[in-house]
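User: Okay, second chain of the day. Same drill as before: sequence in, structure tokens out.
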Amino acid sequence: MTRSVLNLTVHGIGEPLRELDPGEDVTWVSVEQFEQVLDEVKDRPDVRLTFDDGNDSDLEIGLPALLERGLRAEFFVLAGRLGERARLDADGVRELVQQGMRIGSHGWAHRDWRRLAPGQEAEELARAPEVLSELCGEPVGRVAIPFGSYDRHVLARLRRAGVSLAYTSDGGRARAGAWLQPRTSLHRDIGPGWATALLEDSRSPRMRARKLVSRTIKRLR
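Assistant: Same drill. Structure tokens below.
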């Protein structure tokens, strides 16, 4: 049994068909980069693949590449942006489910959960998963925290909301069954061998200690 896992996150693939938010281009990768990563990890049971933001490249590029390699992934969708230009729509979400993929919530409108205005918490943590659950035909209880921005207050809200698993953007390996799961994002500067090297580096005691300290600080602040 795999005791620890490395979670990888994909944001966008190929040529963007919408105006990107400031800094978003850093995590947008080419089709070639994306496929190289898949080929490097396709036989690794200790790697989990996730997708954030609900871009249409998840369906148009990501899904066929996954199916070709016999891989499965979890897609964290922004429920409030379904159907927007170059975003997944309701039919796209249903197609992912029909093809054996898992759907999770990335919230409603890609807000920082540490800085929600009055009334936004219900939209982000209750309405979003409800909308996605209706589309999927099954409960959606897992989340990916937008921007990886959390503290002890955010984690407490997620537990009160009944979240069964929460992904962050902290990087490094995770215990396979842990409630809080760090992830590492693909980015525009990766080259051949990136995922293989990352898998080796993530087992370094020094790196694991550094990541643990960083995550502990976030949980306690």
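Residues 4-220 form a domain with the TIM Barrel fold (CATH 3.20.20.370).

User: Thanks, on to the next one.
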